[in-house]
Amino acid sequence: MTGTVTLGEIARRLELQRVGGDPAQSIRGVATLADADSGQIGFLANPRYRAQLDSSRAAAVILREADAVGMSRACLIAADPYVAFAKVAALFERLPAANPGIHPSASVDAGAQIDPTASIGAFCVIEAGARIEAGAVLGPHCIIGRDCVVGAQSRLVARVTLVQDVRLGKRALIHPGAVLGADGFGLAFDRDHWIKVPQLGGVVIGDDCEIGANTTIDRGALGDTVLEEDVRLDNQIQIAHNVRIGAHTAMAGCAAVAGSASIGRYCLIGGGAGILGHLSLADRVTVTAMSLVTHSIRESGEYSSGTPIQPNRQWRRNAARFKHLDEIARRLGAATKEDPQ
User: Fold this and answer.
1) Which of 60, 82, 138, 273 is the most buried (most CB within 10 A)?
2) Whether 241 is catalytic
3) pLDDT at 95
4) Residue 104 CB-density burial (10 A; 0-12 exposed, 13-18 middle, 19+ buried)
5) pLDDT means over runs of 10, the chain (341 residues)
6) What gap in Å lies between CA 333 and CA 341, rounded to an integer?
7) What per-residue confidence (pLDDT) applies to 2?
8) Beta strands 137-138 and 107-108: pairing type?
9) Beta strand segments in 55-185, E
10) What is the pLDDT of residue 178?
11) Residue 42 pairs with which residues in a beta bridge?
């Protein structure tokens, strides 16, 4: 939906309680409290921004019931204002129109199957055995390799490559430059040189997943690399061969997961974090940004590693002391044994 919608209609559609305001008020978009004008809706999800309520020009504000006490402006009450904001913003999202059919410049193998309702953009390449299901949209310059499947209502924005044996579920959203199904980093060292280990598996992406720009997901060496439903990957993430990521997990930009690691459901992986191969993370684990996971995590919770930033001179002094930590610990242990009190 685009254009304008009334305040009352927004409340009704999203089942939000409206307090005050004119239900016929025309709304044309959303914005922050500081930037919103009289035709937009603002939101208060973080109490640090409460001071901006009085000066905000927003036509209405999405907030929690407790924050609405004493408010004289129009409010939409939500248990989670940020979730409600996301749903309101979706009403005003402008997606490019996609007409069913195949662009004349596209190259489609005779052995590919394309649903008549799918949209195939300019200069796309679709190879033998590929299947494009109903309502799928392929933007310009996408490459769909041998025996790949693009699920119904999925959208590949532009320059997305599915190398081979990749199966996308329904409503997947793949951003530009993503590469799914390339070879994993499989090598065996034979005396004085490397031998490439053939990568014989595929990639399976569940329904409602989102893959960020320039993210890479390698196909499995034997079995498949798997993302369960509703996994959300940010830009420039590396997922190695035979990794499994549980449903509803989200990973921020530049994170990397080494081969055969298994990440549970509802996990949050911060930007730049690394997870070593063959490890397992339990459900509902949060790994903070720039952390390195070097052992399996068996219990839910928040985990961190690394040295916080500090002035360079201080960091250099501390770094010089790191190599003495084992010696200091041994001395303390010996002293404790000599004097238990």
Assistant:
1) 138
2) yes
3) 82
4) exposed
5) 82 92 92 92 89 89 88 90 94 87 97 98 98 98 98 98 97 98 96 96 98 98 97 98 98 98 98 98 98 98 92 92 89 77 61
6) 13
7) 55
8) unpaired
9) 60-63, 75-77, 101-102, 107-108, 113-114, 119-120, 125-126, 131-132, 137-138, 143-146, 149-150, 155-156, 161-164, 166-168, 173-174, 179-182
10) 98
11) 61
How many Cα atoms sit within 13 Å of 253 on the Cβ side? 5
Distance separating alpha carbons of residues 168 and 27, to the nearest angstrom: 36
Q: 40 forms bridges with which residues in the sheet? A: 29
DSSP structure string for 193-257: EEEEPP----EEE-TT-EE-TT-EEEPPSSS-EEE-TT-EE-SS-EE-TT-EE-TT-EE-TT-EE
In the set 141, 175, 193, 241, the catalytic residue is 241
Q: Beta partners for 165?
A: none
d(CA 296, CA 310): 29
Q: Rounded to an integer, what distance in angstroms lies between the CA atom of residue 45 and that of residue 50? A: 9
Three-state secondary structure readout of 269-319 = ECCCCEECCCCEECCCEEECCCCEECCCECCCEEECCCCCCCCHHHHHHHH
Three-state DSSP class for residue 82: helix
- Tokens encoding 66: 């407790």
How many Å apart are CA 83 and CA 179, to the nearest integer? 30
